[in-house]
Specification:
By secondary structure, this protein is mostly beta strands. The chain contains six helices and 23 strands. Strand 7 (about 140-145) and strand 8 (about 155-160) form a beta hairpin. It binds ligand MTE and molybdenum atom.
Length: about 350
């Protein structure tokens, strides 16, 4: 086992903070990602909270501030369960870093994304219990883990617009794939914001604050923003760049893998596709002739409106090197952009260009 009970074959980008993604073969074919394969992204040391001691403070622009223990959450509100995909904004950064260097960020490959069934309560029910004031526009989340990626070091935080926070899908969750939330994934309670970049799903959440403005935490105000290419991220100030919320339409190929050898003839190609927030994946196409012709993939049934779409296509390949490309379309008719060069940004976020694998057919 790797650290935090993860599979031995995880691609570990760093031990402290612990950052790891599964290999494509560990993601492939599972509607729900086994917990030991689920990617994990951390910005500081994993806090080991005692569930008995844990309290959630709900304050800010509310009628009545709340201080809830785990039992209050479990017994005071209707339990909810849903399948949601988390996707890191840095997913697929390695490919973008090959276009032009990206300094100080982990080179995530294809698998900084995973899907689980989450159980908890709806944030909106807790907000309703506190009573949201008329000036409220955003809901901020705080956590105890300290990150020295901020200068000076800061605890992790994020916020989402109130309009998202009051959707029934946003959870305060304590269970993941029928198990209590493991420490590395946010025990005892984390936020799950389906359809938004993973960074907004704050782990070890201990503070929910209703505000008129977005959070001024470093990870909301300064990081997780698309900066113009000429900007040095070390000089970025709060509010610079485009703040990331909903996940951009994306897809990846998980099988075959790069450098695999397959038999010439019909070959099964498969992967995931995901469209954030209120968009859905409408179609995935595959090409083995560099995009001259495309073949439509079969979408597997979706495990719920907030889950990825797994897909497969059988294509004919002849002997020799093969490059397979994929591209997804969403429910608005939008297509993924073709090249990661066009998307390059200094922190390497939101690479949603057409994925490709290079393999060999004998
Ligand atoms: N408290 C806290 N929450 C956090 C983070 C963190 O470092 N600290 N990382 C965020 C990021 S960037 C991502 S992509 C997801 C990853 O969740 P996971 O580790 O359960 O996969 O958690 C988010 N929530
Ligand atoms: Mo992330």
């Amino acid at each position: 086992m790797a650290a935090w009970d993860k599979r031995d074959d995880m691609l570990v980008h760093g031990q402290d903070p612990f950052n790891a993604e599964p290999v494509p073969t560990a993601l492939y074919g599972h509607d729900l990602t086994p917990v030991d394969a689920f990617y994990t992204r951390n910005h500081g040391k994993v806090p080991l909270a005692d569930p008995e001691q844990w309290r959630l403070v709900v304050d800010g622009l509310v009628g009545t501030a709340l201080r809830l223990c785990l039992d209050d959450l479990r017994t005071g509100f209707e339990p909810r369960s849903l399948v949601a995909t988390l996707q890191c904004a840095g997913n697929r950064r390695a490919e973008m870093a090959a276009v032009r260097e990206i300094v100080g960020e982990d080179p995530w490959q294809r698998c900084a994304t995973s899907t689980a069934r989450w159980v908890g309560v709806a944030l909106t029910d807790v907000l309703a219990a506190a009573g949201v004031g008329p000036a409220a526009r955003h809901v901020a989340f705080g956590a105890p883990d300290v990150s020295s990626l901020a200068h000076p070091p800061q605890t992790y935080g994020a916020s989402i617009p109130l309009s998202k926070a009051t959707g029934p899908e946003v959870l305060l969750a304590w269970e993941m794939n029928d198990q209590p939330l493991p420490a590395v994934h946010g025990a005892p309670v984390r936020v799950v914001v389906p359809g938004y970049i993973g960074a907004r799903s704050v782990k070890w959440v201990d503070h929910v604050s209703v505000r008129s403005e977005p959070s001024d935490n470093y990870f909301q105000a300064t990081a997780y923003r698309i900066l113009p290419p000429q900007v040095d991220p070390a000089c970025a100030a709060p509010g610079n760049g485009i703040s990331l919320g909903p996940v951009a339409l994306n897809c990846e190929i998980l099988q075959p893998g790069d450098d695999d050898r397959v038999s010439a003839g019909p070959v099964s190609i498969g992967g995931y596709a995901f469209a954030g927030d209120d968009r859905t994946v409408a179609r995935v196409d595959v090409s083995v002739d560099r995009g001259r012709t495309w073949q439509q993939a079969t979408l597997r049934p979706q495990s719920g409106p907030w889950a990825w779409r797994l897909w497969t296509a059988t294509v004919e390949v002849s002997c020799g090197p093969v490059t397979a490309l994929a591209r997804a379309w969403d429910s608005t008719g939008a297509l993924q952009p073709e090249s990661s060069a066009a998307l390059w940004n200094p922190k390497g976020y939101a690479n949603n260009s057409w994925p490709h694998v290079d393999f060999w057919a004998d």
